[in-house]
Structure formats: C-alpha cells, structure tokens
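Progress against Task 2.4 (sequence-to-structure conversion) is shown through the following example record, which the project officer requested during the mid-term review.
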Amino acid sequence: MTAQAQAPATSDTDNAQVLADVRNHIGHLTLNRPAGLNALTLQMVRSLRLQLEAWAIDPQIHAVVLRGAGPKGFCAGGDIRSLYDSYKSGATLHRDFFIEEYDLDQFIHHYRKPIVALMDGFTLGGGMGLAQGAELRVVTERSRLAMPEVGIGYFPDVGGSYFLSRIPGELGTYLGVTGVQVQAADALYCGLADWYVDSDQLGALDQGFDGIRWSEYPLKDLQGVLASLGTQTLVDPPLADLRPAIDHFFALPDVASMIEQLRSVTVGDSHEWALKTADLMETRSPLGMAVTLELLRRGRRLSLEECFRMELHLDQQWFDHGDLIEGVRALLIDKDKQPRWNPATVAGLKPQRVDQFFEGL
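Structure tokens generated for the chain above:
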C-alpha cells in the first residue's frame, strides 16, 4: 500500500520524527526518536516513503543516506506498544502499520538510487527491514543487529524470511529461531552488512560524502569514500568458529529436536554455547520459533515479493492467534517478564497449529 495523506519528512521542526536534508546531491534521512531508539511509527513509515519517492525522481539526488538520531540506535524496530494499544482498543493501526511498513521495505529493496544505511547502535526488527534493502550497509563497533521477534511471541518479518534464509548454511535459521544479537564482525561474516567504520569516523564519513565529485557511477563514488575509512572484513567473527555446530543443530527437522540435541550432542568445542542456546530457546515462544523455522525454510524457495506476501499473510492472523499480545504484555506492559506462551512448551505444540498459519498462501 502506498502511503497517503502525510507531509514529507522535514528538517524545519524539532518535533519531526523523520528529518530530511540534502547536501552535495545526497538526500539524508534521519530517524528522529532517539529516546525510543528510533522505533518506527506509522507516521515515520509514511514520511520515509514519501520522501524516498520524491528523491527517486529528482535528477539532483544521486544517493540517499539513512541513519538514526543519537548514538544508541539506528532503529530498534516498530513501536510495538502503539500496535498493542491499537489491537486492544479495536482500532486498525496495527494492521495498517504492517501493510505500509512492508511496502516501504520492499520499495527500498528496489530503489533506483544507492542507499547507505548507517546501522550504528541497535538495529533490530523493523530497523533491519529498512537497512537490508540498502546497497551499502554500514556497521560500527556499537552495532547490535538482530531479528529478536521470537522473544516477544512473534516471527521475523520485514523481509526476514528472505534475507535470513539466504545467509550461508544455517546461520540465518539460528539467528531467526533464537533471536540472538550479532555485532559487527558477525554481521559482515553473515552478509548482513557490507562495510565496517569506527563510530568516531562517522563525522569523517559525512565529510567524505559531502566532498564527492560525482561520476556517472554514484555507487562507486560512495564505495570509494567508505573504502578510505573502513573495511569489509573483521578478524575472528565468533560465528565462524560456531558454524559447524550451527549448521548441524539448526538443520534438524523441528525445534524440539534442536533443543534436545543442543543438550545431548557435542560438536567440536561448542558444548557450553549449545547449552546456553538451549536455555535461551526455552524462554522463547514455542509457537513463534516453530513458525519462524517453517517461514525461513519456505523463504529459501521464494522471491522477495513472495516472502513479503507470506509474512503479511501470517501477520494478519497473528494478533488474534499468535503469542504477540502476551509477549508485549509480559515485557512492556506489566513487565513481569513471565510470558504465558500458548502452548507453554515446545513439547505441547502440535504441527497443525503451525500449519494453519500457512493455509491459503
């Protein structure tokens, strides 16, 4: 769905949730809710879409840079509290938000000009949806990337069934089913980022962009600036050592088998990690993990557009039949951190419950 009836992003008010600026033929977009780690609202989604549409057809704009305000986060996902309130009040915000967010993310994947996503700080859920469609994805030592949805009783969306399922081996399955965070070295190793730049060099990066003498190849011009300040690899990514174990455990047919073997089977020197991973998975939504596993395995065979359609098909059922409302209650509303998942354990989950979400695709 194309965004409607919202003004484009603007830089002339401190109250704007998305700030826009143009320097040296680059459109700069800043997510401007630093107190909320720049979590996305529907207003922000619409502002981003309208501004990107305008710049796409503006011959004076050669590229776009997307960032978050403040040092703590690029974007920590969607403003899930507002979606919870919408559902509880019988409003439609929670449905409109996902339709328009997915539309924006897909638009970014097909954008006709290079986008640089500066994933400095927390880049979670909806933040990943914005960044993974960009041609140049930049991380710093402060970056924390994750699709953590299973921790609140949801599943990786915003294109996660596409970009996670295309990470080599079972690394994407591991990231999606557990919801763990990765830092810069692992983000580069997994192909979730393209460049590393120290956070104290971000000012110099802006200066470099401001000084570009544009050729007929804007992407190469941007890459030249990044190459002068950063690198595309970092030594000793932790997931490289764990790769044999991850590829073994997360290729198993179901979540119950994964947890059982993580506790009972030793692969290399990974046993301590395996036990911690099993403990973590037993705190996650059993339904969320099982649906995520099926989602990612289907996603390997689907196009980007088909992945977004599949995610929206699930999302339209999830508020009524999934674990999200309970997860948000436990973690954000009552804050008792004791979600009552349905079912409570992986052992209690019947395959038919998972299959029902995919019916009618």
